[in-house]
Amino acid sequence: MSSSQTASNDLPIALTMGDPAGIGTDITILSWKQRKQHGLAPFFVLSRKSLFAEMAVLDGFEIPLATIRCPFEAIEVFAKALPILELPQSVATKPGSADPSSGEMTIFSITQAVELVKKGQAASIVTNPINKHVLYEAGFEFPGHTEYLAKLSEQWGHGPVRPVMMLASKQLRTVPLTIHIPLSKVAEHLTGALIMETARIISKDLTRYFGLPSPRIAVAGLNPHAGENGAMGAAEIDIIAPALDVLKAEGMNVTGPHPADTLFHASARETYDVVIGMYHDQALIPIKTLSFDEGVNTTLGLPFIRTSPDHGTAYDIAGKGVARPTSLIEALKLASQMACQASIDDRARA
Description:
Blueprint: E1 13-16, H1 24-33, H2 35-38, E2 43-47, H3 49-59, E3 65-68, H4 73-77, E4 82-86, H5 103-118, E5 124-126, H6 132-137, H7 145-158, E6 164-168, E7 173-176, H8 186-189, H9 192-210, E8 217-220, H10 235-249, E9 254-258, H11 266-269, E10 274-277, H12 280-290, E11 296-300, E12 306-309, H13 326-349
Parallel strand pairs: 1-2, 1-5, 2-4, 3-4, 5-12, 7-10, 8-9, 8-10
Antiparallel strand pairs: 6-7, 6-11, 11-12
Helix pairs in contact: 5-7, 9-10
């Protein structure tokens, strides 16, 4: 990452609009309203002022809105009004009604946020929730946010980018090794190379963005009781343990494979900084149980900071004034903390 791309806590956070028919606008308004209570760093949203004006009236949370011409203006404006960097597209959308015509604008919001970070005009990116099926109908060719962000990253000349999804809260951090694949397919996707690559990315970014010089990574087994010495499956013996041996030889602080059913109680959580689960639910159920409203989706392995609320568009409550901004507030706070830590890390390396 060049100096112009280095995250800095002196820059505002770029917040994407997300699906305009979902709760992204609602929770953005509420997050700004609670900015002082939570000590939020300045952020701006890439959207349309008209959308926010309409949603504020529907929600009953009218707030001052300010159109800005460049991200730097958000620093001065933020205390008195929600800064909005106007997108060139316009869209007429109804809260709670999926509308493919909004897809182009949603995608452009993401693209522009990445471009602003690349230019050194924003410290980090926080993405509001999208509806992937709406974007698919609009011609979106990526499985989701993460894959699109990885593709945009590669256009910076970084070569292939391997994004890693980490769910984070004050109580727990978890990473699913495999994500959106059927449970029946997990075993065939599980490889030592995947485990090692994921662990290395986690270790590097927890050091840079979280200030952990030697992150403690606990790795769950795939099978019940971590295979019970092969009696309940051999993945732990044949795949997971050998990969961990290689990582340990590299000096990485990894342990496992651990039985997943004893890995998440309070005492166990004190022994590690992050858990790698073998599949989606093994990693996500614990954190959603412990921190359902506070969990933040953080993408590691990118050349910039990206966080997101750990929930969807919630069409059923959009525009009704009842959406809770907790996860977005936590995502904004974490993005700011990561940017600050990256600046410290950069100064230490200089």
